[in-house]
Amino acid sequence: MHIRWYGRRPALRGERSVKKRDRTPKTYARITHPMVRDTKDGPLRRATWDEALDRAAEGLGAARGAFGMFSCARATNEMNYVAQKFARVVMGTNNVDSCNRTCHAPSVAGLSAVFGSGGGTSSYGEVDHTDLIVMWGSNARFAHPIFFQHVLRGIRNGARMYAVDPRRTSTAEWAESWLGLNVGTDIPMAHAVGREIIHAGLHNTSFIARATSGFEAYAAEVEPWTLTAAERVTGVPAEAIRDLAHAFARAERAQLCWTLGITEHHNGTDNVRALINLALLTGHVGRYGSGVQPLRGQNNVQGGGDMGAIPNRLPGFQDILEPDVRRKFETAWDTVIQPRYGLNLTDMFEAMESGALRAVYCIGENPAQSEADSEQAVRRMRQLDCLVVQDIFLTRTAELADVVLPATAAWAETDGTTTNSERRVQRVRKAVEPPGEAREDIDIICDLAGRLGHAWKYADAESVWNELRSVSPDHYGMTYERLAEHQGIQWPCPATDRLEPTFLHGRLWEDDPQRLGRRAPFGLVRHDPPVDLTDDLYPVRLTTGRRLDSYNTGVQSGSFASPLRRGEYVELSPEDAERYGVTTGEEVRISSRRGAVQAPVWIDPGLRPGLAFMTMHFPDEVDTNQLTIEANCPIAGTAEFKASAIRIEKLPQPTRS
After folding, report:
1. Tens of pLDDT along 572-625?
2. Which secondary-structure segment (H or E) carries 318?
3. E runs forming strands in 123-262
4. What pLDDT does 140 receive?
5. Is the dihedral of CA 9, 230, 181, 194 positive or negative?
6. pLDDT tier at 1 (50, 70, 90 boundaries)?
7. I want to staple 285 with a disulfide (CB 3.0 to 4.6 A). Which of 104, 212, 279, 533 is the partner?
8. Beta-ladder partners of 362
9. Residue 564's pLDDT is what?
10. Is residue 154's pLDDT more than 70?
11. CA nearest to 279, candidates 505, 55, 125
12. Phi-psi region at 412: left, alpha or beta (left = phi > 0; alpha = psi -120 to 50)
């Protein structure tokens, strides 16, 4: 295979050999008994379950009308269903969200705007049999290693792969062509690809006429983005952009995949729409082997949204603003649902600042370390009248709580289901007993609901699932028995006697307008550079991401040994390391307009000059999110984790005696 690298050719693996940094990761204690805090400044102390639940109910009950729920992307569908029901029925609010807001909310918003549902359009197995794979802003080999096995199978079966990413990542090493664009220039790149497809006459005119709307306006929007103009802004040679455009348009089947390199921007939803436009332009959607795939990293971030643990949708991704939808749930739940969207996670943190939000029930999330501008997030949570945290570890967020409730680990200590990013619902089965006094999440929520006037009782997780099936047409056909029989089923599954195709939106290929339904609109989006501009004082662009050996804020992965783990570093290009006179392992100061941290240097030939990389995996050691900016997507609320301006300062070296 002929491999093309657009940008400075980095060194291959094996050209560097550096001793790993010695470190002892923080070990988070498993919570085995309830805890309460007697005064705001006092310590957490052990409590009985009754005392802790009474204290939680008292604090939450006093804040009706000023309450928010943070649900958990790692817990089961059943837990998320009961959690969002607690917010809406017991607390009377749609203020419920999860870490979906931190990562893929722009994907959900963009897909919903175009297709009416917020899930990826293809199955993983289709990647094995496609002809072209575009990995855009995605280091899937590190961040989504299971999905990447399908990518490798696709390549072995003859698929070509293109990687569009500011870094030459481990994923890009497998690509036929790596397009190293400047951070925050995805829309110019996508527009230039679209314009080239149109000018070369490679757009699918019959599909556009049948299934889409707004093509003429889209064509006018992308017209200024010639290959030359895009090269000036993106830094990618015109030849490379043209090559990608022609390969994508000419492929019989193509998969366009993205992750947080697209979504974690102040205009993340616009980025998503720009990529979906390319699928509409070429007809690469609604067919086996062709589709758009947002790769979601946590085991149930898709399912949390599907279960209604988001502020604008009820279970089954049904819009709260639809009167018939609300009536169905009001009848099922014997309640009144507010006919307006609630606050998302970002909105809730802003409401903490103003005092409009006074109590939070946080289940399995760690926003004290995962939010952008983490110091601000901690300060805001300290202002709450009541913070109840339900978790398995004493996280930094739990350390701030007024009440801590010990829960079960969803992957081993409870029954239920989860939904991955190909929309596949799968069974989870209890394997071990939880430690100490830890209890099932659903039982805890129901006990709290009972103390607040709602006598809920579920016999088991299956009874919760069957209630969900009764109100969600997309899940109705998924009995526990069928999920076991088929080893998971993708939604939609509206009937118990058949399975739907593995891909979504096949209707777009129908000639009958009734069967075709709503046309998919092109999105008119414009380039909007990163908010945190680089200048003489902050000349380096910092982008953040994940590594293969670690998970999120490190609470679950940090205490487990890994031969790959080397702690937190600031990764610099060889040119920048030489410019600052630093070497691998040398401690430096990294400053942004919001804060500063110290970290050792790692020299990565996959980075271009002016670009640095860090992760969020070791916040107790190096709190990278002190540097990131809370510049949020106005549609989805996701912060711009991928584009902060920083400076690197060499620290005084100890003198030798």
Report:
1. 999 999 999 999 999 999 999 999 999 999 999 999 999 999 988 777 788 898
2. strand 318-319
3. 132-136, 160-164, 177-179, 212-213, 254-258
4. 92
5. negative
6. very low
7. 279
8. 70, 389
9. 75
10. yes
11. 505
12. alpha
Per-residue confidence at 10, pLDDT binned at 50, 70, 90?
very low
CB 413 within 8 A of CB 50: no
> Taking the CB of residue 444, how many other CB atoms lie within 10 A of it?
25
- Sign of the Cα torsion 381, 387, 388, 393 reads positive
- Interacting residues of 389 by C-beta distance below 8 A, sequence separation 6+: 362, 363, 395, 397, 398, 400, 401, 403, 404, 405
Q: At what angle do helices 77-85 and 461-471 cross, to 10 degrees?
A: 70
User: If residue 303 lies in a helix (H) or strand (E), which one and from where to where?
Assistant: helix 301-306
Give the H/E segment covering residue 344: none
Q: Please say if the pLDDT value at position 569 is more than 50.
A: yes
Q: What is the SS3 assignment for 108?
A: helix
What does DSSP say about strands 386-391 and 403-406: parallel, antiparallel, or unpaired?
A: parallel
Question: E strands within 414-491?
Answer: 416-419, 424-428, 489-490
| E-state strands within 433-561 | 489-490, 520-521, 540-545
Rounded distance between C-alpha atoms, residue 351 and residue 68, angstroms: 10
Identify any residues that bridge with 387 across adjacent strands, giving them in sequence order. 360
The β-bridge relationship of strands 416-419 and 424-428 is antiparallel
Q: What whole-number distance in Å separates Cα of residue 578 and Cα of residue 333?
A: 64
Record the tokens describing residue 380, joined without a space.
Answer: 């805001």
Over 381-401, what HEC string results? HHCCCEEEEEECECCHHHHCC
Alpha helices in 355-479 (DSSP H): 367-370, 374-382, 396-399, 441-451, 461-471
Looking only at the bridges linking them, the beta strands covering 611-615 and 540-545 are: parallel
Contact 201, 171 (CB under 8 A): no
What does the DSSP 8-state code read for residue 407?
A: B
Q: Does residue 121 or residue 300 have the better pLDDT? A: 121
The pTM of this model reads 0.92
CA dihedral 586, 592, 597, 603 (to 10 degrees): -30
Rounded to the nearest 10 degrees, what angle do helices 186-199 and 227-234 cross at?
170
- pLDDT-derived band of residue 284, with 50, 70 and 90 as boundaries? very high
- Model confidence at 26, pLDDT cuts 50, 70, 90, reads confident
Q: What is the pLDDT of residue 103?
A: 75
CA distances 519 to 208, 514, 550, Å, are: 10, 11, 42
Mean pLDDT, all residues of the chain: 92
Instruction: Give yes or no for a contact between 85 and 468, defined as CB atoms under 8 angstroms apart.
Output: no
pLDDT in tens, 122-144: 999 999 999 999 999 999 999 89
pLDDT at 15 over 70: no
The Cα–Cα gap between 99 and 72 comes to 7
Phi/psi at 424 (nearest 5 deg)? Answer: -90, 120
Between CA 601 and CA 587 the distance in angstroms is 6
Q: What angle do CA 443, 450, 335 make, to 5 degrees?
A: 105
The tokens describing 108, both together, are 């959900």
The rounded percent of the chain whose pLDDT value lies above 90 is: 82
Q: What is the DSSP pairing of strand 35-37 with strand 44-46?
A: antiparallel
